[in-house]
Amino acid sequence: MWPRRLSSLIEFARLVGWAGVHRAIRARLYGGGGDFVRFAVDLAGWQAPAATDPAIEIRRGLIELRAARASIAAPRQFYEDRVRGGRRPYLGLYDGSVGHISWVFSPGDQTRLIRLGPGEVELDGAYTFPSHRGRGLLSAVERAILSDVKAEGARVAYTHVSVENRASLRGVRKTGFRPVGIVRLRWLLGFALRRYIPFDAADAEARVEAYAR
User: Fold this and answer.
1) Mean pLDDT of all residues in the chain?
2) DSSP secondary structure string, 147-209?
């Protein structure tokens, strides 16, 4: 376990610099964290919306990811395989240009905000390049992921969005995700303290609309 953690730390430092590592450690000692809306979709009743933009292409897997990393200046979300053992990346391309990445995490994977049970998956590590925003890549990639994991037998998919990320709070609902609660993450002396507060179904959408304004 320790060699893997050391390798992850070295990779994280390579991506953000040792100053970034110092900031991350300081945040984890006291006060770091944030509030995240938890979204869920019941895959039994979910149907993929029809694709609307033929310029969008979806590519899957670590081989495709490594090829993309060799050709672009990629942010840290493109290195979740090295930082926390991610195994299933999905890339969204627009007119042949890589513009988005998302990851799928399953039970047993290293997740941040949820402990997954049998039949559950989480979509995390999403990032869209500024030059590609507004083109529907997040929704297209999420549709591909949900279609795949449903076919594999997953029952429920989750994703988490910071309350400060207004664009994604709106975007994930286009795929079929619905808000179910909020996760409050705080760090204290290196320990992650998570508190999940479910929303009242009657006002869940209104709560998220307030965050998204």
Assistant:
1) 88
2) HHHHHTT--EEEEEEETT-HHHHHHGGGGT-EEEEEEEEEEETTEEEEEEEEPPTTTHHHHHH
